[in-house]
Design goal:
Length: 124
């Protein structure tokens, strides 16, 4: 059977995306593929690379499948930091709040940018 895009992506990943985390599959750490939005949307988000985070078990266990706005911003900043090619915040935000206004999308993207700059400053 042909591997799925998610399986191919998994095979490319090594270190936990969470900034500052040293967990790495190469060191034998148990890693998980997390969807930023899960629950009843997981059947969709499991197919969409913008939603995937590669995390150690500890970081994976800290996240809910229905993130708060604060957690969503943090997770999007981690995605931008570790997997910029697949970073697509508008897609994620619209799945998170299907009726959200363009203003709210812009506001959240700006907050993600601020969190991203903090990560870049602290962990570069
Ligand atoms: Zn971690």
């Amino acid at each position: 059977m042909k591997p799925t895009p998610r399986e191919l992506w998994r095979r490319e990943q090594e270190a936990c995306f969470w900034s500052g985390c040293k967990a790495n599959i190469r060191n034998g750490d148990i890693m998980e593929c997390h969807e930023i939005i899960g629950g009843s949307d997981r059947a969709k988000t499991i197919l969409l690379p913008a939603f995937w985070l590669w995390l150690c078990r500890e970081h994976h266990n800290q996240l809910s499948s229905r993130p708060s706005q604060e957690s969503l911003i943090e997770q999007l900043a981690v995605k931008k930091w570790a997997d910029p090619e697949r970073y697509d915040p508008a897609k994620v935000i619209k799945m998170w709040r299907p009726n959200c206004t363009p203003e709210l999308v812009r506001e959240i993207v700006a907050l993600v940018g601020r969190e991203y700059r903090r990560i870049a400053r602290d962990f570069a």
